[in-house]
UniProtKB/TrEMBL annotation:
<comment type="similarity">
    <text>Belongs to the ABC transporter superfamily.</text>
</comment>
<dbReference type="InterPro" id="IPR017871">
    <property type="entry name" value="ABC_transporter-like_CS"/>
</dbReference>
<keyword id="KW-0813">Transport</keyword>
<dbReference type="InterPro" id="IPR046342">
    <property type="entry name" value="CBS_dom_sf"/>
</dbReference>
<dbReference type="GO" id="GO:0016887">
    <property type="term" value="F:ATP hydrolysis activity"/>
</dbReference>
<protein>
    <recommendedName>
        <fullName>ABC-type quaternary amine transporter</fullName>
        <ecNumber>7.6.2.9</ecNumber>
    </recommendedName>
</protein>
<feature type="domain" description="ABC transporter">
    <location>
        <begin position="1"/>
        <end position="216"/>
    </location>
</feature>
<dbReference type="GO" id="GO:0005524">
    <property type="term" value="F:ATP binding"/>
</dbReference>
<dbReference type="GO" id="GO:0015418">
    <property type="term" value="F:ABC-type quaternary ammonium compound transporting activity"/>
</dbReference>
<dbReference type="InterPro" id="IPR003593">
    <property type="entry name" value="AAA+_ATPase"/>
</dbReference>
<keyword id="KW-0547">Nucleotide-binding</keyword>
<dbReference type="InterPro" id="IPR003439">
    <property type="entry name" value="ABC_transporter-like_ATP-bd"/>
</dbReference>
<dbReference type="InterPro" id="IPR027417">
    <property type="entry name" value="P-loop_NTPase"/>
</dbReference>
<dbReference type="Pfam" id="PF00005">
    <property type="entry name" value="ABC_tran"/>
</dbReference>
<keyword id="KW-0067">ATP-binding</keyword>
Amino acid sequence: MTAEPGELIMFVGPSGCGKTTTMKMINRIIEPTSGSIRIDGRDVLSLDPNELRRHIGYVIQQIGLFPHMTIAENIAVVPKLLGWTKSRINARVDELLETVKLDPTKFSHRYPKQLSGGQQQRVGVARALAADPPVMLMDEPFGATDPITRESLQAEFLRLQESLGKTIIFVTHDFDEAVRLGDRIAVLSERSQIEQFDTPANILAAPANDYVSSFIGHGAAIKRLVLIPVTEAKLGPIGDAEAGPITVSIADSLRDALDALVLSGAPALMVVNAAKKPIGSITVERISAVLGADIPDVQGAGLVSASGAGR
């Protein structure tokens, strides 16, 4: 398996299949006993393990913030180890807090227990980015958050990745999360056997075997919607849309649009541009036309993602 520079690779598979073990071999928290892992062509076993880890960001589900340190001190841990000056560290801490949408003047001097779970997770990401590592490892980083916070963090993470372009290995047990975030997905079975390694669209369209099909589960067509922007649909007249607080943005996916339609119960919703100006309407039928197939049981609760309930 090769991860290209700037690529976001998702490891997905059932509990106990070895996703986290594989990830931990990259930064030698677990030592590989055979084979090789190379970063920029250099075998990780040839590098000093502490030096290796200082150049790999690491984010875990439990976050792992030091409770006796302030938020600023937590973010500054690796830069201090690298011998950065105090002024450089302070500037980097402020920059990262702003990047993860936490006001430095409000959060720098707080302690982890004074933050919500979602805020702590943002700090965890900021700390992993502190020394600007080329590679990041993320082990179910959003798994402990509630569904609404999880979607917010995923959206924030995608925004960050678009600007930062890190090479990331991301472990999750949630296939929907893998589809939403990943450039490519490695579907793993027992002992980290790679059953399929491909783009989300290709895995959904052509599962390699019955194992991958069973892991995707029912509703592959619905899962594909998260990969398709609203702009792919042929929008209807503005007059067809129901006036109300729920609208769909051109930045949303068709899955977002479907969730909004089910949540509102409206036959059609307004689509707005970045300036919040109406540009057309969207319906379930127009979403179905993009897929080339009917979307079954649209009003069924099973079609509404947990994230949609908070919109």
